[in-house]
Amino acid sequence: MRIRVLGPLQVEDGDGPVSVGGHKPRTLLAALLVARGEVVSADRLVGALWGDAPPAGAVTALRAYVSRLRGVLGTAAPIHHRPPGYCLSLDAATLDAAEFEQRLRAARAAAAAGDPARALADLDAALELWRGDALAEVADEDFAAAEAARLTELRTGATADRADALVELGRAAEAVPELEALVRRHPSWERPAVTLMRARYATGHQAEALAAFHELRARLGEELGVEPAAPAQALYRRVLAHDPALAATPPPGNLPRRASGFVGRDREVERVLAALRAGPLVTLTGVGGTGKSRLAVEAAARDRGRFGDGVWLCELAALPEGAPIGDAVSAALGIRQRSGLSIEQTVLEYLRDRSLLLLVDNCEHVLEHAARLVGEVVQRCPRVVVLATSREPLGVDGEQVWPVPPLPPEDATALFVQRARAATPDFRLDPAAADAVATICSRLDGLPLGIELAAARMRVMSPVEVARRLEDTPLLGGGRGPVARHQSLVATIEWSYRLLPEPEQRLFRGMSVFAGGADLRAVHRVVDPAATEDDVLDRLARLVDRSMVVAASGVRSRYRLLQTLRAYGRSRTEAAGEDAALARRHVAYHVEFAERAGRGLQGPDERAWAAEALGVYDDLRAAFTRAAADRDWDLAVRLVAAVPELVHLRVGYEAYAWAEQLLHVVDPDHPLYPAAVGAAARGAWNRGDFPLATATARLAGGRLPLPGTARIAHPGDVLADVALYDGDVDAALAHYTAEAARARADDDRIRLVWTLYYVAVCEAVRRQPERGLAAARESLDVAESTANPTAQSMARYALGLVLKKSDPDRALALFDEAEALAAGVRNFWWQGIAMMEAAATRAVHGDPVVAARALVAVLAHWDRVGDATQQWLNLRYAARLLQRVGATADAAVLHDHLVAAGKPSPLGPPDGLASRSDPRAAEAAAVAHARAALRRVASGRLVPGPA
Question: Measured between alpha carbons, how far is residue 26 from residues 20, 36, 132, 416 in Å?
Fold first, then answer.
């Protein structure tokens, strides 16, 4: 006998779930369980069952319910009559809540004994017992509320314990999402916030670790009027000091955590692993729904330890048909286009010296571009292995093609049972059901997607009924093999679709318009605006229950169709004549969303807006592509004007190509034309093409963009920045001084912070930082009034820049705060310059070992962000530090690289005989040498010399 209360009340015997009866006997059992073996008086039980107004004969009815429960529970869980009532005797193995507490105690004992691996195993086993809320059916009743709350609190503590164990085991990256969720749910609880600091630091995100502390301090100050406790303060100081004891070596990469267990295919996994070790490219092929992606992810996860730079998943399903894949691969790797290089060249340059496994998923609809880039990776990146999935081979030299077979009968049955129990926890595989399941799996050719769709029907049908319906449905057109299996899958999807009521059919096929999924608001507005949002949510929930839609939880739950189901849905919208109207609503919704997000990114909720907008980036791309194809230039330019801060600062330079595409087709009198010009000009500036940036910016004819335009999309600013980088500081200073006056007069605080920041920067570049002090301080005051993290970061950076020589300690604190603020909103460029100035200041005024570690982190940061201008500046700082610690030979090598690339060197003018080389090759060689030399300093293998 087994009784479960960690979710809906359930009683099981050796053959599966046992019926307890209706509401009254279930409530009676819950009341006895909550008493934990103590006697519950008959009066209290009557109150639990009938409330304050029991009917006549309630005590007699209570005895009848007790008798019925005794018949269900038998001797395994006996109910005893003990005046003045009853008690239930259980051992720990019978009640899931008792087992949970027992395992939790064991886990905490293991953690106290210094065995986090054992603690994690016990915690996983304990948390797997939960199927929902504790005592879900009666948690609001007076007799159960306290016990439900106690168990919930224990569950929350166990979740926090699990995160601690993951961090201790060097698996901090896995802990971060759970910790962030805990912090959101319990904002004043310091423990998960402190562990989140540790986890973020251990994954190489010092700035985000500091951001976690600042957010905790703000919450405690606002809600309780207190400062964080001593442990949080101490950890904050250790993070600031780059305490080596906090460092960890988490497995790099971005593989998703599996939502359900991987069933079977052990032989296939081993074969794929062997193939990966034998060659640089393995492609898993097969029709949609064969499980290519799951097999690839499982194999990649098991091979993770072989690659020093990790395993990285790039999903291509959301790309338009025939689209280039460079931007998607760079986004998956977390890198951005480098100046002077195409996005594909940037990817190849980044991968050239790295050891990693790149998993490229769903290549079939972008096959030509995928084959071209993967082929280049195979040829030019000797330590990179590529695992691809596609419905057909890529056709690249060295490719090993592995057709993914259907599941064998035993694995197919296991998958069906797993998914059926997810839909219906009391699903039992008795002999009759087993025969029917075998028939279903055979009829569906062992295709995992088809099996999951059929298993989802267990909520409303039995296996025998599903098997009979499939027998009556002509799934196959004859023959076997991939074509027949494809017919089988399509017919299964068709069968599942036709079982849906018409409103759910309409919602399902309409969701195919989304490239990367959508939240409830988007689904409602785009797919069925005539319905109520509650109706749409109800239909979505039923589609999720039927495995037709995939739900991902988060701050806002998101819903998407698997690629095979999406393709089917698109075919149904075309057949229904709905595709054009859907596309128009999709574009209009995402343009409006982009405009809201653009405004939100300049407000106090920048972090939330950045997270939400990044989640819909695939659909913003799709919206622009559709608007341009329809020549709807108004919608296209509205989108382009709205997204620069989202895309440029957080994704890459893809959206600049959108802006460039519009410049010669949009009416120059359009009010947003100057913003589009500014966005395109900024793209040229970022690529290092200053002549094109200047020519593009001048297309605006001196017109100013509208108030609220993205900070980086002002044409005049681009012209001033070109002047600044060309050495004409006075021109840049005059522009920003005038723009600061304009912003002050217009009460445009975001614009004022930006322009005052540049005034301070110009004065620092002129080596007169004291003249920029007033502007920097005003910038900080204004930034604080906006509560916008990017504005606050910029202002702190500006003030630190003008103070770093006169007050280096204060400057360091400002740079660290600037980094944390920028990192917290994924503003990678501002994060990088703050990191770099902090490292440079430490290299002159601080501990050389700490400075060396910081400079190595900055090298890696600019490598990912792709800004060669900033990387060369960082290399100058590295050369200075190496000279300071007595590593003169290493410093001389960096000096030679700087000179060869035509860059100024802090170690003196170039030798008259110095030769020039390709700046990109010189940069790569300089970064590699600097990284190795700085790591020697950081490890203590170089003895620091005098400052």
Answer: 6, 16, 17, 30
